[in-house]
Structure prediction request, 759 residues.
Amino acid sequence: MYKIREAKQLTDNIYLMNVEARRVAKHCEPGQFIIVKIDEEGERIPLTICDYDREEGTVTIVFQVIGASTLQMSKLKAGDSFADFVGPLGKPSEFVTEDLQELKKKKILFVAGGVGTAPVYPQVKWLNEHGIKADAIVGAKNKDLVILEEEMEQVSNLYVTTDDGSYKRKGMVTEVIKDLVVNQKKEYDVVVAIGPMIMMKFVCLLTKELGLHTIVSMNPIMVDGTGMCGACRLTVGDEVKFACVDGPEFDGHLVNFDEAMKRQQMYKTEEGRAYLKEKEGDTHHGGCGHCGGEE
Amino acid sequence: MADVLKKVPVREQDPKVRATNFEEVCYGYNKEEAMEEASRCINCKNAKCITGCPVSIDIPAFIAQAKEGKFDEAYQIISKSSALPAVCGRVCPQESQCEGKCIRGIKGEPVSIGKLERFVADWAKENGVKPQLATEKNGHKVAVIGSGPAGLTCAGDLAKLGYDVTIFEALHKPGGVLVYGIPEFRLPKDKVVAEEVKNVLSLGVKIETNVIIGKSTTVDELLTEEGFEAVFIGSGAGLPMFMGIPGENANGVFSANEYLTRNNLMKAFRDDYKTPIMRGKKVAVVGGGNVAMDAARTALRLGAEVHIIYRRSEAELPARVEEVHHAKEEGVQFDLLTNPTEILVDENDWVKGIRCIRMELGEPDASGRRRPVEIPGSEFEMEVDTVIMSLGTSPNPLISSTTYGLDVNKRKCIIADEEFGKTSKEGVYAGGDAVTGAATVILAMGAGRAGARGIHEYLSSKNK
Ligand SMILES: Cc1cc2nc3c(=O)[nH]c(=O)nc-3n(C[C@H](O)[C@H](O)[C@H](O)COP(=O)(O)OP(=O)(O)OC[C@H]3O[C@@H](n4cnc5c(N)ncnc54)[C@H](O)[C@@H]3O)c2cc1C
Ligand SMILES: Cc1cc2nc3c(=O)[nH]c(=O)nc-3n(C[C@H](O)[C@H](O)[C@H](O)COP(=O)(O)OP(=O)(O)OC[C@H]3O[C@@H](n4cnc5c(N)ncnc54)[C@H](O)[C@@H]3O)c2cc1C
Ligand code: SF4
Ligand code: FES
Prediction:
């Protein structure tokens, strides 16, 4: 059992938890993820590591409620436990193993969308601890959905933007990138974009135009997270990659986002579920509460 | 009196009924049937059956006890050689091992050794008989990676020798392929696998789940920081292969591993478990091994019409004869000498069909089997909504790539000797599918046993 030390609601549907997981905390690096399972009947849910404390043996995760399992998770309190919590999974971000002197010469721009701020945070924090202050754009639908602003502020040069303009800048993250690169003539060696697939896709389209090398963190459907099932496969360039062991970070200009987005819908969206239901009747029995699959 | 040339028949669930449920197909013998079958054994002096058993169970000896109804004694004899008899009695390919060698088989049917083993193991469980306990603890710590048949056997043997053994398992449940791969209807998870695991734990073995060696910690750390004096690697061969044909990433294409894991480990077939699975209407399973049969029979039970697509002929099917027979009885259709060339998708990237080409058998290839060759112009399309790729697996490089000085061959299999499981790295032993590539439960157990011997020898001489 893996005890939850702290559980707090960050926004309407985004939650943060601090979990005791000694082995994960000891070995994890920015860019990696864990898989959590609530109880015997639960799904294996992949979540990026948002922060870690090696001394305390704890790992922080931040998740958005999007379906049955994350909803069930959001109801857990400090003192409750997860049945299973395994990791760290995937490869660390490239810079962790790069030569520090070389790295210090680089200008890095982070682009976070929504709950994607959580996985960006440990990366900018790591860089900050190693004497590198990166630029970071955080985008959210509206004011209420901006998370970890204070934390990000402390470790990066932060630009916050909201789609509806209810807080700070108005507009999508891509507009901020354009502003920084085209108007302000800032130069970057690498862009790291993490967020919903659709956002990463559009960031990549833009950075390709701008000639900026871009790394993305992919979040396909997973089961085991150890390379055993292939559920997480993606096309990168002309190769098939397993996101859980080859990634989750990839060269964004090589990722086939359209395929990845369709694959992500397999069990997920209402459309996918309705599609499944129409195709095969009662398969989806997770009780997600919004597709009517269980009726 | 029944015909002594024939096996006492074993009761099975009716094919029509079982094709719709996940209950065990074979009911196994009862006491009377077991004793009657045991009496068919002529207790050969130079018993050929033992030479066919990869772990050399003293078969005539246990059968002699069973014949007398002394099942406790029979169980202790089996336990000396096998840590997982209830599993082996169900899934071993006896027809090509012990039963393949049985004298009775020359004129008539061999003794049903597998079903007897199963009965004895099940009887022992029902009657609370446990394998004999360890000798005194010797205080030496050994780590075992992976809780499949290789790891469980190695851990059990070492514990019996007095070692302080901890198993590290990547998944949330112990058992390896026995829990995530082989389906419930062939190998019940709670009744059989969990019980066998409990037996191993009752020997004093500890198990830590959710630890991925190479990620959560490393072999080198186990040896240098955590105080383990030797390590056995039994991490299996879990990486699925795909064909590399167009359409393979479409929605509705799964590896057999994914499909079976969703259903077996995550229990997607049960309403109270949350993991979803796609229940196809018409499913194509590509491949002809045990894994393909299991995937096909699972899809069938989830309500689909199922076709096995295999590029060679029936004689070359690598699956156990019994499994092919069961699959056919249940209504799985076999499209043999057929090979997929493309998966057809609809506008939303869901599978809508599979294009195949007919094959014929040509000259034998390196494996000695006749090589299938395409018949030009014989392509055709089949309408399906799900495709399950069951083309084999290879070892995961997670451990070998993070362990200093551990050699692998070009198939990424860990190099270890057969007799003691010794690898290129001091104190590190390995066995099972991680070494051989995908093989069988009993060979993995044999390798686990060899690894235990190797480790015992190594630590005994080191600690002298
Ligand atoms: C490497 C990785 C890192 C991730 N990090 C985070 C994170 O830090 N914070 C966060 O909020 N979310 C993260 N996700 C997504 C998160 O795992 C899903 O939101 C979650 O599994 C949804 O579960 P559900 O049952 O509530 O949703 P449902 O929609 O009911 O799930 C249905 C099925 O689809 C799968 N699924 C649905 N959406 C996703 C998705 N986006 N990614 C993967 N599987 C999905 C589920 O596992 C399940 O099998 C990450 C995913 C991956 C692969
Ligand atoms: C569907 C299917 C049906 C089969 N049917 C039969 C049959 O009827 N008869 C038969 O004899 N054989 C059958 N086999 C083959 C047989 O199951 C395997 O040969 C056998 O299980 C191999 O045992 P193993 O202990 O080497 O590995 P596995 O059973 O694969 O166990 C390896 C374990 O190690 C764990 N592991 C892997 N990497 C790590 C890591 N880095 N850290 C920690 N743990 C790790 C895995 O999670 C797993 O639990 C079948 C296989 C499959 C897939
Ligand atoms: S070969 Fe057959 S008859 Fe002879 S001992 Fe073995 S099981 Fe009995
Ligand atoms: S999640 Fe199973 S292989 Fe990646």
